[in-house]
Known about the structure:
42% helix, seven-stranded mixed beta sheet, 12 strands, three-stranded antiparallel beta sheet, 14 helices
Amino acid sequence: xxxxxxxxxxxxxxxxxxxxxxxxxxxxxxxxxxxxxxxxxxxxxxxxxxxxxxxxxxxxxxxxxxxxxxxxxxxxxxxxxxxxxxxxxxxxxxxxxxxxxxxxxxxxxxxxxxxxxxxxxxxxxxxxxxxxxxxxxxxxxxxxxxxxxxxxxxxxxxxxxxxxxxxxxxxxxxxxxxxxxxxxxxxxxxxxxxxxxxxxxxxxxxxxxxxxxxxxxxxxxxxxxxxxxxxxxxxxxxxxxxxxxxxxxxxxxxxxxxxxxxxxxxxxxxxxxxxxxxxxxxxxxxxxxxxxxxxxxxxxxxxxxxxxxxxxxxxxxxxxxxxxxxxxxxxxx
Length: 333
Ligand SMILES: Cc1ncc(COP(=O)(O)O)c(C=O)c1O
């Protein structure tokens, strides 16, 4: 029997044998006391990679986003973001529920920054009725915009504008590694476009768990307190941080393979490979539900993400042969 090829998400990967060994051998301590050497090593590594002062390991990307955004936006204040941003659409309203902030959104076909619109929307002090804007959030790559990369120059222009008006910039970099590999732009250059980032080790990088807030020492110290308050202070969690360190060492450059596989699949599924920047393919199909069901029958799992939209995501557990087999199935359908 041939195995199922699961293209529903890049969060579905299982730790490799080498990653499991690194986890088993990790030195650990109580991280709530700041005494887990492997967590500390991971946090230092992440801070250095993004050119920031500090980082904080978190269980999930959603928690990292909530902690990161709240360093810039308080209760009764607002953050501006793109309409399909993960923070706006897919975190169950966590930012409103925990922080008490509101969001206003702009719409960009590729999930990017529409700077003239952002300028128009930005309202830090409009008198006694209006919610003050204190920050702007961007997502790179953009999940629901099909893994699109927002070019560095756009984020640099946004950061410059934000700096000139005293706004903070948050970058949801759950898949910033994919943007880095797709463009060759160093992680530190992406880091310089934001005051605070949330990055994930558990998406394309293939760790089973783990994300981080990356930013100033003050933002990270504040996030450490809020992480504990939210119940996210973990103990001998070096076993998970070890997976993250292993992923940073071994699973970044290989993302180029995922990107190539995604283009192959886009073509097979009737999409345009030239619109595929990274590892996510979004294809419009009138027959989305039937297509997903027919693919499943043939051992290829893909996700419906709208009545006429399907999504395919490549990752560590789909090698070239798997991608070719899935492409053959999708092309036949
Ligand atoms: C862009 C983006 N940000 C944040 C998250 C949240 O990560 P988690 O599922 O670890 O909470 C995701 C999850 O897929 C995501 O795609």
